Amino acid sequence: MNQGDLTETINIQSKDEIGLLAVSFSEMQASLRDLLKTLEDNSTQLAASAEQLTVSSEQTSQATEQVTTAIVEVVGSAETQTNNIDKNVLALNEIAHGSSIIADNSLAITDLTKATTAKAEEGGESVSKTIEHWHKTRQLKQHKRCESGLSISEEAIQKFGEILNSIREISPQI
After folding, report:
1. Residue-wise pLDDT tens digits, 1-35
2. Using CA atoms, how far apart are residues 134 and 101, in angstroms rounded to an integer?
3. Got the DSSP string for the chain?
4. Is the torsion defined by CA of 10, 14, 15, 19 positive or negative?
5. 84-130 per-position pLDDT tens digit
């Protein structure tokens, strides 16, 4: 027992004070043996728990890394979407500006079309008056010189009238 071997038992036969002391030593030896067994069991359990904590800690670390990676990806995607939204807003602003220019140009074209139509109508009236005057002049035939001085043939005047009518038909469509 003095070298730490608690497995040896002492066989006590005496009932005197030395025997009682030996019995006490025997009981102490049994208690020490039980205490060492309990310590050994607790140490084994503690080592197993420490290993489980290490494995759990590694798993938690891996999970944390995965969550961090996922968060970084989400942030990257959010930044990409924000950039795309900014580009779309710029494109929509350009479209709105272009539409405004088109509307302004359409109004200008409408105004020009109205002015052209008015000028065509004025020209048509002038041509009609000229044709009417020419017919009156021809009917009167008062002066031969006047009639021979006109170089516009009746056929040319009719073609001019047809062109004028075509302009009148087209101008409201513009």
Report:
1. 556 666 677 777 888 888 888 888 888 888 988 99
2. 48
3. -TTS-----------SHHHHHHHHHHHHHHHHHHHHHHHHHHHHHHHHHHHHHHHHHHHHHHHHHHHHHHHHHHHHHHHHHHHHHHHHHHHHHHHHHHHHHHHHHHHHHHHHHHHHHHHHHHHHHHHHHHHHHHHHHHHH---HHHHHH----HHHHHHHHHHHHHHHHHGGG-
4. negative
5. 999 999 999 999 999 999 999 999 898 888 888 888 888 888 888 88
